[in-house]
Amino acid sequence: MRVAMYYNNRDVRLEEMETPRIGPGEMLVQIFASSICGSDTMEWYRIKRAPLVLGHEIAGRVAETGEGVAGFAMGDRVVATHHVPCFACHYCETGHETVCDTLLGGTHFDPGGFCEYVRLPQINVERGTWLLPEDVTYEAATFVEPLACVLRGQRFAALRSGASVLVLGSGIAGLLHIKLALANGAGMVVATDLSHARLALARQYGAHHALAAGSDVAGEFRKLNNGRGADVVIVCAAAEAVCQQALQAVERGGVILLFAPAPAGTVVPLSINEVFWRRDITLTTSYAASPADCAEALELIRSKRVGIDDMITHRFGLAETGKGFQLVADGGGSLKVIIKPQE
Question: Is the entire prediction scored with pTM above 0.90?
Answer without folding.
Answer: yes
